Amino acid sequence: MAAASQVFASHGYRGGSFQDVANVVGMSQTSLLHYFPTKRDLLLAVLEYRDTKLVNESGVPLDEGIVCEVLAQSEYNVGVPGLIELYTVLASESISPDHPGHAYFVARFGNLRAGYAEGFRALASEGRLRPGVDPDVAAASLVALWDGLQLQWLMAPGEVDVPAALRAYFDQVLTPTP
Amino acid sequence: MAAASQVFASHGYRGGSFQDVANVVGMSQTSLLHYFPTKRDLLLAVLEYRDTKLVNESGVPLDEGIVCEVLAQSEYNVGVPGLIELYTVLASESISPDHPGHAYFVARFGNLRAGYAEGFRALASEGRLRPGVDPDVAAASLVALWDGLQLQWLMAPGEVDVPAALRAYFDQVLTPTP
């Protein structure tokens, strides 16, 4: 999984081959095919591996509201640029409906928007949303901002501070905690 | 250029081949190689073509401040999903330092951040920035938000309204026009 993540992050799904992954892991292509009959199977396993790894290893609290969750996860992500690159490259490749990751990413974005919208509505019920802020627009914007910041940070790590910019966004849409 | 844009948008630079482009345009690979000696030359020409086309055809006013410019360009972009997909796919592929588009995108993001920061500073001098908004953070965030929204819109066009979300962002960081 680590080898496949590395290959797909550097070359994309289309540019990365079974042979590249087999080379990194020091295994024959035949042995690799025993575990993953197709490259598509390998991709879907890598996406699941990435999700599980990020959630399990980050230690991010999931029951303290979206602000805490998003800021903690974004701090953690700074230490795992390879997994962030993997996500960024595969998401864009998957725009194409014939890409084997397409359904995964369409569902992922839909779930993220729905989850964050719920988080913003919870904050609204506590009177924390600033006037005029729509929970659904804020949810899509938060996902977008985070993805776009990570892209810029991967290109020029010294020039973009992802957690700081996300904190600034929350400051703009939420009133200060009492 | 249109054929190469289409091929690189659908398959990425790495997944798209000279032969694919030659097929779309109805030209032999040899003839295509006469104009573009390497695939790298073709990529750089496509990126320049895209920039020129977007600026020339959009009719977006460039001297009326960033709010007007960004909103008008984002409205125009809704009508040219192929060019937006091309940009989104190539930008992510180009994170890798050995990708021939890497230098182009590093420079592009740097220039966009610098230009928008200047725009936000101009608004600050008119007293239009809300308290606590940093022009440099707002500039990186605007670029990020726009890129991320376009990615979600390309995945699910009916679910994300890019110009509306950008307008909401400006409302959050700027005070209303007097």
UniProtKB/TrEMBL annotation, chains A, B:
Domain of life: Bacteria
Transmembrane segments: none
Keyword Cytoplasm: no
Domain HTH tetR-type positions: 1-54
DNA-binding region: 17-36
Keyword Transferase: no
Pfam family, one: TetR_N
SUPFAM superfamilies per record: Homeodomain-like (SSF46689), Tetracyclin repressor-like, C-terminal domain (SSF48498)
InterPro entries: BetI_C, Homeodomain-like_sf, HTH-type_TetR-like_transc_reg, HTH_TetR, Tet_transcr_reg_TetR-rel_C_sf
Keyword tags: DNA-binding, Repressor, Transcription, Transcription regulation
PANTHER family xrefs: HTH-TYPE TRANSCRIPTIONAL REGULATOR BETI, HTH-TYPE TRANSCRIPTIONAL REGULATOR RUTR
The protein's name: TetR family transcriptional regulator
Phylogenetic classification of the source organism: Bacteria, Bacillati, Actinomycetota, Actinomycetes, Micrococcales
